[in-house]
Amino acid sequence: MSAPSPTPAKPGSAQSPQTGEAVSEPRIGLEAADASHSGDTLGTGDPGMAGAETGSGNRPGLGIAMMLIGILLFVTNDVMGKWLMSTYTVGQVLLLRSFAALLMLSPFIWREGVMTIIRAPQPGLQLLRVIFSTLEVAAFYWAVSYLPLADVMTFYMAGPIFVAALGGVVLGEHLSRRRWGMILFGFAGVVIAMRPTGAAFSMASLIAIFGSLCFAALMLTTRNLRKTSDVSLVAWQTVAALVFGAVLAPIGWVTPSTADFILLSLLGIVAALAHICVNRSLKLAPATVVVPYQYTQIAWAMLFGYLVFGDIPESGMIVGSIVIIIAGFLIFLDEQRTKTRG
Q: Per-domain residue ranges for the chain?
């Protein structure tokens, strides 16, 4: 496989194959609606990305609106990240973004208690989760510096499919033949999206798949940290990114302009606001009502990819994304049926 060729990013600037990170996973996926704690919610006293039972409210219209706003903010954050990665190094992005995020988090950390966060339970699993988080965001931004935004998002939307498969293979969870059929159907969509012929089967695509696998592992570890508060999870994740960025920042430092400094600082803030919107959506309406609207991120990614970066999605990617969306949605519905029966 040959080295990938970067896609145009920030007009008028040199492309940089560096990686970056947002305060949170820019990709949500249907699996997020199944976790009692999302790794990147800011915590408002209730679990963030909860399942259908969390959506005890009866305001579906407002819930859908909040979900759509949240997804739009997530995609906007990813567009800013792709734009900035054309000029700045991973160290700068991580350092400035994480510093701004910690400033925003500080009231929540103070309310939670610094020692409570430091003494978070299951430290070994906490460390493993931070490693997966760092790897998945690094892979995302490395891949997005070469591939169109919609392409990378398509691969990351396969995360819930990988979670289902890993749950059966690694954790020994019982999966019905129907569930395995849905998983294999989703894998077929990934293969179609990768277009495994010639130069299209690129290293950048493999990096995106690797990131999606790390994202799945991140969700699995988060699932087993239900006793850890949302604030603790996101605080450790942000601190780890800050430290990593501080180590790398001196290498290839580029002094940001005022406008870019604001964008770098906004990366974490916008992602946090997006999570708040999604969390609120799941409290206003059942997950079965609002979760399907998460897939509007592909439409936004295609639109912004075309308007900002001139990316035109290929037919294989469109077909693959549709297959992945259908598979993920079927897995989500099957999981909800299983919970109802239980």
A: 30-341
Q: Are 280 and 153 in contact (CB under 8 A)?
A: no
What is the number of H-type helices and E-type strands within the chain?
Answer: 13, 0
Residue length of the chain: 342
pLDDT at 72: 93
CA 175 to chain centroid: 25
Question: Is the Cα torsion angle 158, 163, 166, 172 positive or negative in sign?
Answer: negative
Give the Cα separation of 214 and 206 in Å (integer).
Answer: 12
The string of pLDDT tens digits covering residues 236-267 is 888 888 888 888 889 889 999 999 989 888 98
Burial pattern 137-171, b for ≥16 Cβ within 10 A else e, equals bbbbbbbbbbbbbbbbbbbbbbbbbbbbbbbbeee
Cα–Cα nearest to 34, from 309, 328, 319: 328
